[in-house]
Write a structure and sequence with these properties.
By secondary structure, this protein is mainly beta. About 5% of the residues lie in helices and about 45% in strands. A hairpin with a 5-residue loop joins strand 20 and strand 21.
Length: about 290
């Protein structure tokens, strides 16, 4: 029943959601989005996109959301699945986003925490892989939020649900979904196995729930996806991820869960129903 009402909330908010509430801090920008295709079973609730090959981004990785089998799926940009890899020993408790480092390692964020009940959150790190792999090496990054004392805390303090992250300079940058108070918190975790207690490094006031994140190939832009909007933030310095929000792109296509910068500067976005869009966005042409 709870998921039903949440789906209604997302549907209504995505229809009426614009960038009006963010106009004081960023400009509204309208960029054409083209529907590429749609995933079909067994990819039933894609949550995360990542390029398989940086030189050829025609194929991408994706994962299913919580409760599904622990597979990493490869597909074309139109949603046609081309392969799968079983990640033995990895439980899909609540997989929410994908990231990739400069060496080709894939990171799966098992950090969904809708009810703020989880005391330990996980990120799986998978060594560089392709569809011809023989044996996978999988490490775990375990963490919890330093500010969380109760499980769950009071309703207005339940800002410990995370669905978005990316890799940059040997670090994973995580963004909370901003439940309760509309402040998106930024956390940083070393991109190596360990058990970490992480404290918030920065925050930004946004009224939409953040569901995915990525950084552009030239490391100049960060995109934060939400229900109904995409926020574009220009990087000023490596330590100031949230200091320069520039553009807000209305994107009213339901419960959008995944975003990926392509090498060309375009973006791919998918929603929970499996539809995939491509946005002709060129950051360098908009400065």
């Amino acid at each position: 029943m709870l998921s039903f009402f949440f789906s209604i909330y997302v549907a209504v908010s995505s229809v009426f959601c614009g960038c009006h509430s963010e106009k004081k801090i960023m400009k509204e920008r309208i960029v054409k989005a083209t529907l590429c295709g749609k995933y079909s079973s067994p990819v039933i609730e894609p949550s995360g996109l990542e390029a398989i090959n940086e030189e050829d981004t025609s194929e991408v990785w994706t994962i299913n959301d919580s409760g599904s089998e622990s597979y990493l799926w490869s597909s074309s940009q139109n949603g046609k699945t081309t392969g799968k890899i079983l990640l033995e020993g990895c439980r899909n408790f609540d997989w929410e986003d994908l990231a990739k480092d400069d060496s080709g390692r894939i990171y799966i964020g098992d950090f969904g925490n809708n009810l703020n009940l989880r005391k330990e959150l996980l990120i799986y790190r998978i060594m560089p892989i392709n569809l011809d792999y023989k044996k996978l090496i999988i490490d775990s990054i375990v963490f919890h939020f330093a500010e969380q004392r109760s499980f769950p805390p009071r309703r207005r303090e339940r800002n410990f649900d995370c669905e978005a992250f990316f890799y940059f300079n040997d670090t994973l940058f995580l963004f909370t979904k901003n439940r309760g108070i509309n402040w998106v918190r930024l956390y940083k975790i070393p991109a190596k196995p360990g058990n970490y207690t992480v404290a918030s490094q920065d925050s930004i006031y946004l009224k939409s729930m953040i569901t995915s994140a990525d950084i552009s190939e030239d490391k100049k832009w960060v995109a934060l996806l939400s229900y109904g909007k995409i926020y574009f933030i220009k990087l000023l310095q490596h330590k100031e991820i949230l200091k320069n929000p520039v553009y807000c792109q209305p994107f009213r296509h339901g419960q959008t869960e995944s975003i990926l910068f392509l090498k060309s500067g375009d973006l791919l976005v998918s929603n929970e129903a499996g539809k995939i869009w491509r946005l002709k966005w060129r950051g360098e042409l908009m400065e």
